[in-house]
Design brief:
423 residues; alpha/beta; Rossmann fold; Argininosuccinate synthetase, chain A, domain 2; 5-stranded parallel beta sheet; 5-stranded antiparallel beta sheet; 41% helix; elongated; EC 6.3.4.5; Argininosuccinate synthase; Arginosuc_syn_N
C-alpha cells in the first residue's frame, strides 16, 4: 500500500505548509486529482480543500464529478461553466492572431490552462484560500501554465504541486492509495480500457501515451473519439461557409450563432468529413520532445477560413509582419505566458490588423481535406481591374521600368563594385 508520506522538508521549503489552512484544487474528477484531496488533508494539517472543476466543453457528467469530489473528501466544490468565456476571451484572440505552434498544433490545451488558472485564482480570493494546487506532472507543460498564471494574477498565493513531492509514481500507486482511503474509482467495462492520456475541451481532443509514444507507430483508427477517420468519411464533398466580423467567426452557412453553438456546429461538420486530425512530435517547454495526436475538426475549419479571408483583406506588409509575429504569439501561449505584457501587446497589434477581416469564406470538405471554394469581403484588396491579363486603363506597364531600376539599384551598385575590384 502506498502511504501518504512525503519529503516534508521539501514541501515546507516550497509551500510553508504549516501556514496553509485552505487550499483550492484544480479538480477534474480523474484518479490523480481525486487522490490529491485526501493527500492534501494528510500533509497540510487537515486543511480545508475546495475542488474547482472548469467546464471548458469536455463531455463529463459534472454532477457525478461533483459527487466524486465530495466522496473523496472535498469540503466544497465549484463547477464553473466557462465555455463561452473560453472561446470569446482565449480562443478567438488566438484565431485572430493565426497562432499555430510549430506549424501544426492549434494550442487546444495551451490556452485552456490560463483560463482555468484564472478561475482558480478568482475562487481562491473569494474563499480566502492560502494556496492553489494542481495535478500536473513535473514532466509536462501544464505545470508551467498553471503556475505562471497564478504568479501573474496572485503573486502572494502559495502553489502546491503534489507530483513534484509525493511518493506516488504510477497509476498503480495511485490506485493503491485510493483504495486505502476509500476513494471511489470508476469500474472499467469488460471492454479493453482506453489506453491514452487525453485532454478534452470544446476546441480539441488530445491523445498521448501507449503506442503513440513511439513516433514510428501510425495512429490506429480506434484512437479517434471525435473525428471520423478520413477513409470512412462520406464519398461526396460537403460545402460549408463561415462568416467573420473583424476576424471573429460569427455565422455558419449564413446562420448567426453564438460562440459555443458555432463551434459545436463546425465540430459536427468537420468531424463527419474527417477534418482536423494532427499528428505531431512537438518540443515541450520543459526540454523534451513528445508525440501527440490531436482532433480539431471545428478549429481546423475556422483557422483555415480565417487565413483565406486575410489573403483577401490584408496588405502585403501587414500580412508578412503578422505572419512573423504569430509564431512568437504561439510560443507565448504554448509557454503559459498568456498574462505577459508581450502577449497583450501582440494582441493589441492583432486587433488593429483585424479591423478589415470581415467577410465570408466557403470551404469544400472531402475525406480529411479542406479545399478553398471562394471568399468575399467588403474590404477586399483584390481588384480584377488591376490584375487582369487583358487590356486595362488603370495600370501603366511602363511604370514598372523605373520601379525595377530603383528597387534593383543596390544590386547594380554592388555588381559595379565587384567588377572594379577585379580590374
Amino acid at each position: 500500500m502506498v502511504t501518504s508520506q512525503v519529503d516534508v522538508a521539501q514541501v515546507e521549503r516550497s509551500s510553508n505548509m504549516s501556514e496553509i489552512k485552505k487550499i483550492v484544487l484544480a479538480y477534474s474528477g480523474g484518479l490523480d486529482t481525486s487522490v490529491i484531496i485526501p493527500w492534501l488533508k494528510e500533509n497540510y494539517n487537515g486543511s480545508e480543500v475546495i475542488a474547482v472543476c472548469a467546464d471548458v466543453g469536455q463531455p463529463d457528467d459534472f454532477k457525478a464529478v461533483e459527487e466524486k469530489a465530495y466522496m473523496s473528501g472535498a469540503d466544497k466544490v465549484y463547477i464553473a461553466d466557462v465555455k463561452k468565456e473560453f472561446l470569446e476571451n482565449y480562443v478567438w484572440p488566438v484565431v485572430k492572431a493565426g497562432c499555430v505552434y510549430e506549424g501544426k498544433y492549434l494550442l487546444g490545451t495551451s490556452f485552456a490552462r490560463p483560463l482555468i488558472s484564472a478561475k482558480l485564482v478568482e475562487i481562491a480570493k473569494k474563499e480566502g484560500a492560502d494556496a492553489i494546487c494542481h495535478g500536473a506532472t513535473g514532466k509536462g507543460n501544464d505545470q508551467v501554465r498553471f503556475e505562471l498564471t497564478v504568479k501573474a494574477l496572485a503573486p502572494e498565493m502559495k502553489i502546491i504541486a503534489p507530483w513534484r513531492v509525493w511518493h506516488i509514481k504510477s497509476r498503480e500507486d495511485a490506485l493503491s492509495y485510493a483504495a486505502a482511503h476509500d476513494i471511489p474509482i470508476a469500474h472499467q467495462s469488460t471492454d479493453k480500457p482506453y489506453p491514452y492520456s487525453m485532454d478534452w475541451n470544446i476546441w480539441h481532443l488530445s491523445h498521448e501515451g501507449a503506442d503513440l509514444e513511439d513516433p514510428a507507430n501510425e495512429p490506429q483508427n480506434d484512437v479517434y473519439l471525435v473525428t471520423t477517420p478520413p477513409e470512412k468519411a462520406p464519398d461526396m464533398p460537403e460545402y460549408v461557409s463561415i462568416d467573420f466580423e473583424k476576424g471573429v467567426p460569427v455565422a455558419v452557412n449564413s446562420e448567426k450563432q453564438g460562440a459555443v453553438q458555432l463551434l459545436t456546429t463546425l465540430n459536427e461538420i468537420g468531424a463527419r468529413n474527417g477534418i482536423g486530425i494532427v499528428d505531431i512530435v512537438e518540443n515541450r517547454l520543459v526540454g523534451m520532445k513528445s508525440r501527440g495526436v490531436y482532433e480539431n475538426p471545428g478549429g481546423a475549419l475556422i483557422m483555415y477560413a480565417h487565413k483565406e479571408l486575410e489573403y483577401l483583406c490584408l496588405d502585403r506588409a501587414t500580412m508578412h509582419c503578422k505572419e512573423e509575429l504569430s509564431g512568437k504569439y504561439a510560443d507565448l501561449v504554448y509557454d503559459g505566458m498568456w498574462f505577459s505584457p508581450l502577449r497583450e501587446a501582440l494582441a493589441a497589434f492583432v486587433d488593429v490588423t483585424q479591423e478589415t477581416v470581415t467577410g465570408t469564406v466557403t470551404l469544400k470538405l472531402y475525406k480529411g481535406n479542406i479545399i478553398s471554394a471562394g471568399s468575399v469581403s467588403p474590404y477586399s484588396l483584390y481588384s480584377e481591374e488591376f490584375v487582369t491579363f487583358g487590356e486595362d486603363d488603370v495600370y501603366n506597364q511602363q511604370d514598372a521600368e523605373g520601379f525595377i531600376n530603383l528597387f534593383g539599384l543596390p544590386l547594380k551598385m554592388r555588381a559595379l563594385m565587384l567588377q572594379a575590384k577585379k580590374k
